[in-house]
Design brief:
Length: about 200
Amino acid sequence: MMINKRKIEFVAPGDRLGVVEEFSPGLGTYEFNGVIYAKTVGLAVKDFINKRIYVKPPNKKPAFPNEGDEVLGIVTGVQDKVAIITIFSVKNTFLPNSFTGFLHISASSHKFEKTMSDVCKTTDVIKARVFAMKNGLLQLTTAGEELGVMLAYCSFRGNELNLKSRKGVLECRSCGNIEYRKIAKNYGFKITGGEKIEHHNS
């Protein structure tokens, strides 16, 4: 009987790939609270022989976000006044290589936000717009109803949070946990065949 030694599937940043008890995180992945997530867009390879997960990027020509472009990214770091965003899509087109953008709290919303954790959290998928380039760094904004968090996960269970209120209230259907984000109007994010981005309301 032949044993399938590898499993390959298309993934986007923020997709859950496995846990550290079963696999070690490889290229194109990162670990958070014992869970392995995709860091880049591409093909996730689960190597059951070597107990390793890695993501192979798609074969496409490099692209770079420009001022005014709408981008999708995953929140990879949150401080008191700034969030670090790994950009993986520009104008609904996946990038073969990710770029780093910075979202300052002053550019996160038209209303006052006390701390960055009220806007987004690590592993959130976020829709933003590039508004400036300073010292080679992409400056992002999520001000406006079309921009903001597109997908968020429960801080306790790691499950996808469902939209409970347009005011940014999200709920985990597994444990009932309530969390808050600065959400985009069309909260919801998924990948379909052919590397196409679709938005859906939860």
